[in-house]
Design brief:
The chain is an all-alpha fold. It is built from three helices and no strands. Helix 1 packs antiparallel against helix 2 (34-68). It has helices at 3-27, 34-68, 75-90. The protein has one domain (3-90). The longest helix is centred in the middle third of the chain and has 35 residues, at 34-68.
């Protein structure tokens, strides 16, 4: 599995976790109980730790790719390359 995929999984999970916990917390008067608090804190630590770890790994990997010149062409670069090809063919 690629680093970017793992980062996205952790990031999306963290965002969903935050929304769900906020929704439950706003709807329930006795939330969280002591056991739920400990469990939710542990889950939050895992999600935040995983998200930050893979964010740093992803940024390091992308930096190495840029330095080596193996950067993939984005949509704008592909469009610019196509325009240059058309201009050279017309000249």
């Amino acid at each position: 599995m690629e680093i970017k995929t793992v980062f996205l999984i952790f990031g999306i999970s963290l965002a969903c976790f935050a929304v769900i916990v906020s929704f439950i917390g706003l709807r329930s008067k006795n939330f969280p109980s002591r056991g739920a608090l400990i469990g939710l804190l542990l889950l939050a630590v895992v999600l935040v730790g995983g998200t930050t770890t893979f964010a740093v790994k992803l940024s390091i990997e992308e930096q190495h790719e840029r330095e080596e010149g193996h950067e993939g062409l984005g949509e704008e670069s592909k469009d610019a390359a196509a325009i240059n090809i058309i201009r050279h063919d017309q000249a």
